[in-house]
From TrEMBL:
Residues 378-482 form the ASCH domain. SUPFAM superfamilies: PUA domain-like. It comes from Spinactinospora alkalitolerans. It holds the Pfam family ASCH. This is ASC-1-like (ASCH) protein. Transmembrane segments: none annotated. Gene3D superfamilies: Hypothetical protein.
Length: 491
């Protein structure tokens, strides 16, 4: 693709107009609270194979973690929440016609959930993690609700139930707190007969009715193991309120764009329970993937209306991404390229895309994307880039942050400078406590053949402030891996 025909054209918007880069949306909070770490949080219902929209949100989490680490000089990671409380089965009570549901966790058990995550997500996340040099953790909703902090936060919201219930359920004011029957694990879907009967220092007591086992009582306190299945809005309220209390790690929720509507209700509830401004959730809404009608691409549409409801532009892999015609690494590399393109301009990122337009973008991906070997990537100034390309700079110096700790001898390392890149192979790795110690051991000329030790120290300390140098220093031995070729389509 030539530089004269842009890949993407997007109109301006209020948000895009306010930002130079999409990641700048995090800057006000970072300036105000100076977090030690940023964690990008993404939750996914694990009810079967992921579709493109789901994988786009997840890919964005990893890519933004990588971008934010560089931009804000702070450690970043991704936390993936596998929502195993998604309904697996719903049945109607034959007498009352109340709906009862069983979660994926209750239907499949812990091992079954582990298998499901393994089938659909583990390889995808491992590949994303490697390509974006970003660590991730994985937790299920079942783990989350069992954590004392989450349960304590839930109990605190119960004290304010009168204030939040209309935000959580604006049409009828009944909050859906599902407490599955201890005998069979089924729970009333809309919690019609689930009552809070006691609330005190020691916890909460609920009564509920099972369609099979009759009335039962459930005690919820931070230590009990009674399963707490909160409906989507309430779960988000408790989770975001809890994460907002963390003073060291800043949490950023990644959500599909359709969530922007629903978050108004969560914010209403956070407001009435007096959540301080700097504890309000930070959220980044990712591009929605739309059918030609403008409706969100969804598997439920397919389930309810059959294949006929799908527009011709929808390719099978878009609805079940495990059918992508290629390996996981290839799929991940294409997605990272795509999201990378969207992130080049806030106008491209804070908007929606039809499947047809996304299909067109994917078709216009660089022809060599398939052949490009997986490599760590680093941006670098032009003067150093030229020395590497000429083969005269054979040691690169960086601070030893989480992405550098992944470097291994033999790995490929791609240096980028504007439109150029050069591929190298790592020949050795040496770690030091600071730049002084590093220069005591590393041959000066291999770092920069044209500058003195004093000049080099001054230059590198202009790039890395003391708090970054405190992470330690890594010297990376490199050799050219292939002849350097300019890449046209990188902007
Ligand atoms: Zn039961």
């Amino acid at each position: 693709m030539s530089a004269s025909t842009p890949l993407l054209i997007s109109p301006n918007s209020v948000l895009a107009n306010a930002l130079l880069r999409s990641v700048d949306i995090l800057r006000p909070r970072i300036q105000a609270t100076r977090p030690k770490r940023i964690e990008f949080v993404v939750g996914t219902q694990i009810n079967g194979a992921p579709h493109l929209g789901t994988n786009l949100v997840q890919t964005t989490a990893f890519l933004l973690a990588q971008v934010a680490r560089r931009e804000f000089s702070v450690e970043t990671s991704v936390r993936f929440g596998a929502l195993d409380n998604a309904p697996h089965d719903v049945v109607l009570d034959p007498e009352t016609h109340h709906a009862y549901q069983q979660t994926y966790f209750h239907a499949l058990g812990k091992a079954g959930i582990g298998d499901l995550i393994g089938t659909y997500y583990r390889a995808f996340f491992d590949s994303l993690s490697e390509a974006a040099s970003t660590d991730y953790t994985l937790e299920t909703y079942t783990d989350q609700q069992a954590a004392p902090g989450f349960r304590a936060e839930f109990l605190r919201t119960l004290e304010r139930l009168e204030e939040i219930r209309w935000w959580m359920a604006p049409s009828h004011g009944v909050v859906h707190t599902r407490l599955p029957c201890p005998e069979c694990g089924w729970a009333e879907k809309r919690a019609e007969r689930t009552k809070l009967v006691g609330l005190g220092e020691e916890g909460a007591r609920f009564t509920a009715r099972c369609f099979d086992h009759g009335a039962y009582e459930v005690d919820v306190d931070p230590e009990t193991d009674a399963y707490l299945d909160l409906a989507t809005l309430y779960r988000n309220l408790v989770k975001e309120r809890l994460l907002g209390r963390d003073t060291e790690t800043m949490h950023v929720m990644l959500k599909g764009g359709d969530w922007a509507f629903g978050c108004q209700l969560v914010d209403g509830a956070l407001g009435v329970i007096g959540t301080p401004g700097h504890q309000m959730p930070l959220r980044i809404f990712t591009p929605q993937v739309l059918a030609h009608t403008g409706a969100k691409l969804s598997k439920s549409l397919l389930r309810e209306r059959g294949k006929g409801a799908l527009p011709a532009d929808v390719e099978p892999w878009m609805l079940d991404t495990t059918t992508w015609p290629g390996g996981t690494d290839h799929y991940v590399d294409v997605l990272l390229w795509l999201v990378g393109e969207l992130l080049t301009d806030p106008k491209h990122f804070f908007r929606s895309f039809t499947v047809k337009e996304l299909g067109r973008l994917m078709t216009n991906r660089p022809a060599d994307l398939e052949q490009r070997p997986r490599a760590h990537e680093m941006g670098i100034y032009k003067r150093y880039f030229d020395l590497i390309k000429a083969g005269t700079k054979t040691t690169e110096i960086r601070v030893n942050d989480s992405s550098r700790q992944r470097l291994k001898v033999g790995d490929l390392l791609r240096f980028r400078c504007r439109d150029e890149e050069v591929l190298t192979r790592i020949t050795r790795i040496a770690r030091y406590t600071d730049f002084e110690e590093m220069f005591d051991h590393e041959p000066l000329s291999s770092v920069n053949p044209t500058a003195t030790r004093e000049d080099q120290l001054r230059n590198i300390r202009e790039i890395y402030p003391p708090e970054r140098e405190a992470l330690g220093v890594v010297a990376i031995g490199i050799e050219l891996a292939t002849p350097a070729l300019p890449v046209e389509s990188v902007s």
